[in-house]
Amino acid sequence: MKKANIISAVIGMIVSGSAFAYTFTFKKFKNVAVGPEFFPRALAVLLFVCCFVLLVQNLIPLLKNIPDTKKAPTLSLKDKGMQKALIGLLIITAFAVLWNFLGFLIVTPLAVFAMILLLGKKTYVLNAIVAVGITVLIFLAFKFLLGITMPLGFLENLF
Questions:
Q1: How far apart are CA 132 and CA 105, in angstroms?
Q2: Rounded to an integer, what distance in angstroms lies between the CA atom of residue 86 and that of residue 83?
Q3: What phi-psi label fits residue 27: left (phi over 0), alpha (psi between -120 and 50 degrees) or beta?
Q4: Model confidence over 95-136: pLDDT tens digits?
Q5: 12-27 pLDDT, tens per residue?
Q6: Quick count: other Cβ atoms within 10 Å of Cβ 12?
Q7: Which of 28, 101, 122, 150 is most buried, with most CB under 10 Å away?
Q8: How far apart are CA 104 and CA 155, in angstroms?
Q9: Which three-class secondary structure state does DSSP give residue 137?
Q10: How far is CA 17 from CA 48, 55, 103, in A?
Q11: DSSP-derived secondary structure letter, 75
């Protein structure tokens, strides 16, 4: 198990370093204290720190010659949790693919509704109200508080 954790930590550190480096290609804005690169950089640093901690936690017992008696758990598509994770990944992928074509106001409530169902809430009317409410709240916050326009797809001419 330690070997898998060490490999995962190193891969995570490489990915976080690459993501951090990529943020230097973002467009710079004058007179803006916090630009669009801030949040991705913060996440990249956080990922790097977490991976570093994982690496150290698994290298110390290895360096002290403490035997690894735990077996790594195997992943199976028969596992309900794995199935839900893959369905969630599919929902997010569909959301990203349809975002520009259908627009934020159509894709977001569908994705939120699907994710709520995936979490096991079967109250369809309440789920729909929550999905639409969250979408409207996010849309208004971005439009009026942050001054950022969300892609509206074919509804672009209405707003």
A1: 9
A2: 5
A3: beta
A4: 999 988 888 899 999 999 999 999 998 899 999 999 999 999
A5: 999 999 999 999 988 8
A6: 17
A7: 150
A8: 9
A9: helix
A10: 7, 15, 32
A11: P
